[in-house]
Amino acid sequence: MHPFTGTLLGLADSRPSTALVVGNHSQETDKVVGNATAGNIHGFVDDRYADVRQPLRVPLTQPPAGNMRWRSPKAIEVKAP
After folding, report:
1. Which domain of life, per UniProt (predicted)?
2. Residue 27 near residue 48 (C-beta atoms within 8 A)
């Protein structure tokens, strides 16, 4: 083993660990965040930012699949709840 290999491995082990926390839902609650003609819009309201609404799964157009791939988007057919 090269003399510097042990030193490099030791430095790699001594670095502080960093963790990325994504989507901390402990302070968020799932609730109605808006209304639309087809019904309520559900999402999250974070307690830390009460004025910010985070809507979830709001489709705006039909997906560009099949023969619609290179055409203009089409509106979604809305069905009343």
Report:
1. Eukaryota
2. yes
- What is the longest distance spanned by two Cα atoms in the chain? 72
**Which amino acid does the sequence have at 18?**
T
Q: Which two tokens stand for residue 29?
A: 């609650």
Domain that holds residue 34: 27-75
Q: What is the pTM of this model?
A: 0.39
Task: With respect to residue 4, please indicate whether it lies within any of the assigned structural domains.
Answer: no
Give bridge partners of residue 43 from the DSSP assignment: 31, 55
Task: Say how far residue 1 (Cα) sits from the centre of its chain.
Answer: 46
pLDDT in tens, 18-51: 444 445 444 556 787 888 777 788 888 888 887 8
